[in-house]
Design goal:
The chain is of the alpha/beta class. 44% of the residues lie in helices and 17% in strands. The protein has 15 helices and 14 strands. The chain has helices at residues 16-30, 45-48, 74-94, 110-121, 136-141, 147-163, 172-181, 230-236, 257-265, 282-289, 311-317, 331-339, 350-367, 370-383, 386-406; strands at 2-6, 34-40, 54-57, 60-65, 100-103, 125-129, 166-169, 189-191, 216-221, 246-251, 272-277, 294-298, 322-325, 342-345. The protein has an eight-stranded mixed beta sheet with strand order 3-4-2-1-5-6-7-8, with helices on both faces.
């Protein structure tokens, strides 16, 4: 089959989906399909120097479309929000007719709408891979706070989903959110989570040595964004009793980093250290996780309904128990509690967070969190196994085409 896969970012760019898509496209190419990935030029200079306008990787072709560098947002991001979907849609309309076209949710709403229309014109099967759901996420962040704009974007994305043969989401919470838009979409929605963040480089050492004996190391890797409420986590550390020794490590960059640093400067707690590391490779991040005792996953209220933190699978793959802060009726929180994967606390529950950290320190002293690590390893083998997930992607591909033919 002829397949076109589209995302604003692609390897060697830094967003997680840039690497996930390389694995998915590579698997389809291994299956014997003709695969083309359409993406923008990388955001960071180090990645831009390694990415050509057109190249072959893992048996599939990449075509990179010129876009404005929009790391700081603003008017450049608005232009890319429209220009990138237009360019890729023209490519779909002018290229040889595809059997399947898949896109993710960046740029938000506009990419899915434009690509789904172009795919319908070419009579192909459209697969909508929703790493998160917009405009709901945008309303939480404040980007789409205008009621009229929100309603327009909601109708556009609903129309996109109705044109899709398959809608791939990452969790049962996201599936329920899709069905709340339109219950008739039920037969099209597939829950298919990611796996550990792929690593295409050489193995690297941890940027930090193991913590001192008796010190509980908690790590957070990835984007320090507006949806995590990380500064509140740091502020809660001040309420830990003096005998508790904890080291919290933030590895990454993001718009909320300055707020987290400010909360750290205000922190006065003996025995508590907060460290900041720059963003690094997936290999370095994994090596850091292997020195730690807990992986921090935290989301502000509402987000877990419309997104699933990709770092969860990477923590799990490294045998790292979880400290999760989100709604307790979510699929993620219930998995942690039911399977004994670590600790789960409601977002904003300061007392609950302090209690969880005290318990984790006690468990560390008793047996090094042995039972939690064993539970995490079992969950990783069943839910985040890369080969199993990629096999499902292969099966879903044929299933989506069959749906088009039957229609």
């Amino acid at each position: 089959m002829r397949i076109i896969a589209i995302h604003r970012y692609f390897w060697p760019d830094s967003p997680p989906y840039a690497s996930f898509l390389r694995r998915i496209a590579g698997r389809w190419a291994e299956d014997g399909h003709q695969v083309e990935v359409l993406a923008g030029r990388p955001s960071y200079e180090s990645a831009r120097s390694r990415a050509g306008a057109a190249e072959l990787v893992d048996g599939f072709r990449i075509r990179r479309i010129p876009v404005l560098r929009d790391l700081s947002g603003g008017w450049r991001q608005l232009i890319n929000l429209v220009a990138f979907p237009v360019f890729v849609s023209v490519r779909i309309l002018l290229a040889r007719s595809p059997d399947v076209v898949m896109c993710s949710t960046v740029p938000q709403v506009t990419l899915g709408w434009a690509v789904s229309v172009a795919t319908r014109v070419r009579r192909g099967a459209f697969v909508y891979h929703c790493m998160d759901l917009h405009p709901e996420i945008g309303r939480i962040s404040g980007e789409f706070r205008n009621p009229l704009l929100y309603r327009v974007l909601a109708q556009l994305d609903l129309a996109t989903m109705r044109r899709a043969e398959r809608i791939v989401v990452l969790s049962e919470d996201m599936r329920r959110a899709v069905l709340s838009r339109d219950p008739r979409l039920e037969g099209r929605v597939i829950v298919l989570n990611n796996w550990a963040l792929p690593d295409f480089g050489e193995p690297e050492a941890s940027p930090l040595p193991p913590p001192a004996e008796g010190v509980l190391r908690v790590v957070f890797t990835g984007n320090l964004g507006r949806f995590q409420g990380l500064e509140q986590v740091v502020s809660a550390l001040a309420f830990l009793p003096p005998h508790v020794r904890i080291e919290v490590v933030f590895m990454g960059e993001g718009r909320a980093k300055s707020d987290v640093e400010q909360a750290t400067r205000l922190l006065e707690a003996p025995g508590i250290d907060v460290l900041f590391l720059p963003a690094g490779s997936a290999s370095a991040a994994k090596a850091l996780m292997r020195t730690a005792h807990l992986g921090l996953v935290t989301l502000v209220p509402g987000v877990v309904r419309y997104a699933y933190p990709s770092k969860t699978a990477t923590y799990i793959s490294q045998g790292l128990p979880l400290l999760v802060l989100c709604e307790q009726d979510s699929a993620l929180a219930q998995s942690v509690t039911r399977l004994g994967l670590g600790w789960s606390v409601a977002a904003g529950d300061q007392r609950g967070l302090v209690r969880a950290l005290e318990e984790a320190c006690q468990r560390l002293a008793e047996d090094g969190l042995a039972s939690e690590r064993e539970a995490v390893t079992r969950w990783s083998r069943g839910s985040f196994n890369e080969s199993r997930v990629l096999q499902r992607w292969s099966e879903m591909l044929f299933d989506s085409v069959r749906g088009t033919v039957e229609a």
